[in-house]
Amino acid sequence: MPHPSPRVLLVEDDPQLCTALGDHLLRRGFALRHCSDGAQGLALALAGGHDLVLLDILLPGLGGLDVLRQLRAARAVPVILMSALGAEQDRITGFTQGADDYLPKPFSLAELDARMDALLRRVALDRARPAPPALGLVFDEQAQDVSYQGRAADLTSSEYRLLCVLRDHLDSALSKPFLYQHVLHRPYTRLDRGLDVHVCNLRRKLTHLGRGDIQLQAIRSQGYLLSLRPTP
Q1: Separation of alpha carbons 206 and 107, rounded Å
Q2: What is the pTM (predicted TM-score) of this model?
């Protein structure tokens, strides 16, 4: 475990499940807060201080997906969605809204432990990494945009995620399947041109911003690579 007492927020309206999960997490040594409605869960999550959020989708009042959407506008805390809605479209919607993982109900405590531990390990590794290069740009996580010399690029959220993922792997070619999973949150198929469109738009907006030195290259049979062209 990456922290002596990882802090978990549990947002679940089923009292029996909430009690079972709460008892289990406390036995494992987690520092736990829990609530049963979406509005309170959002307020607690926005207040910060949590390493992980376990979020039910079907909540009274403000639904879990709405909680996630509003939370993602302000915080990057890891979120595992829990729901009896196990259809593929429900999972895709959850990932598109910014979920880090999805647990269809019913699930075992062993599976919950495995997914939580894997996510917390990933977060610990991310925190230990050096800060990614800024590329001379100002990254605004809340606005999902970048600016240069006070001018905004007006990126879409997908273009912003694409730039961030490529920046985090500067000078390394990333495959299309990898980028589809981490940027567009869907599997890659050969007929899907969505990523290529985002790449073209990102190139154009960076050039218009005056940053043509930020090169986004297509690498044959490998994918895409971001690099900085040396200034003369």
Answers
A1: 45
A2: 0.60
